[in-house]
Amino acid sequence: MDNKITKRRFVDFLSYEWIFVIIVCVVAIFGWNLIYTVAEPRLSTGQKFKLIYDDGVSTSYMHSIIEVTYNAGDQKYAYLDQPYGAFSYDVIKMETEGMSNGMENELGLRYETKDADVLITDSLAKKTSSNLTTRRVNSIIETYKMWSFNKAVKDGDLYLEKLLKDDVAKHQAGDLNESYSYAQIDQAKVKSLFLKRQDGDNRYRKAEQKNQGIKQECQRIEMLCHEIRFAKMLLRDHPEVFYTYTIGEQGYNQAVEYGKDQNLIGKNKQILDQNKQKNLTEYGVEKLSYGINLEKLTNGYEFSSGDFFTDDYGEHKNLVMLSFDFISEQPHLQFESLSFMCTVVRLCSYIV
């Protein structure tokens, strides 16, 4: 039987079977794409870090700040006095995104899908359609669960407590005058944590990969000790850099401004007082430090906040940087947000 492929036979085949060839090509492309999609590693909540620029904040420099903070542990940034870059080995992807004008549902969607970590917004006083004063940052704090620095350092202490050597005395979580050092951390507990967290991760199948991963996990914990200590120092010694707020404050102020309904004023006053008391009980202050006032970050060794963050008119006044609180969903990688914000403070100010 003559099965030799000749030019004539090949041309005849294409002439009569061209539809079949196209179908085979389409199926092959679809199949390959399916295999790639299924095989691609699925990022857990926290393994992708996203910086959101709110409506009215310029997106001109948002990629630059990610690059600089990522490399902040390099020798060229030795003046920052931090051992590593802002992100640990377990942050696999970093993104930035600007919100569209008037599209509040975009931010809500990012929040609901946990597809955001740090937000840059503004604190400028504006008037509503009812002629009441409102601030965008206050509305965000009232609407979404935001991670105050007060809660962040307390969460960090509680996280590190589980990794301490057995003979290390624990201090009250959130105490601004006490911090755990990396020397107090039990390396065996860090190893155990890593193996539990990364069980089934294809990046760590081989022994040498696991050993490298354990080393990187130790670096993550070392950086966390560094950042908790730095954040406590900011809260204790540099309160001026924070944007502080009590939930219920804007509602009460608007009720007073409206002035026509004493019952409404009383109701909002009660809500505000309850939140003040709650904050006093949990953190020792009435107002929580929810974000960084970026205009306060000036005179850095190389940068100021205006090099990375401005409004649409080129000004960096009234801009606030704050973090969403997803610690229940990402108990290990929530602290990447804290590290990023602390690194920004060191980069853009004299505080190190």
Question: Would you write up a description of this structure?
Answer:
- By secondary structure, this protein is of the alpha+beta class.
- Among the domains are: 1-40; 48-149 and 223-246 and 287-348, D-Maltodextrin-Binding Protein, domain 2 (3-Layer(aba) Sandwich), CATH 3.40.190.
- It has helices at 7-39, 62-70, 104-112, 136-143, 149-161, 187-197, 207-237, 249-258, 262-283, 335-348; strands at 48-53, 93-98, 118-122, 125-127, 133-135, 146-147, 242-245, 288-293, 319-324.
- Strands 1, 2, 3, 6, 7, 8 and 9 form a 7-stranded mixed sheet that branches.
- Helix 7 (207-237) packs across helix 10 (335-348) and helix 8 (249-258) packs antiparallel against helix 9 (262-283).
- The longest helix has 33 residues, at 7-39.
- The chain is globular.
- It starts with 6 loop residues before the first helix and ends with a helix.
Brief characterization of the structure:
The protein contains ten helices and nine strands. It has 352 residues and is an alpha+beta fold.
Break the fold down into its secondary structure elements and pairings.
Blueprint: H1 7-39, E1 48-53, H2 62-70, E2 93-98, H3 104-112, E3 118-122, E4 125-127, E5 133-135, H4 136-143, E6 146-147, H5 149-161, H6 187-197, H7 207-237, E7 242-245, H8 249-258, H9 262-283, E8 288-293, E9 319-324, H10 335-348
Parallel strand pairs: 1-2, 1-3
Antiparallel strand pairs: 3-9, 4-5, 6-9, 7-8, 8-9
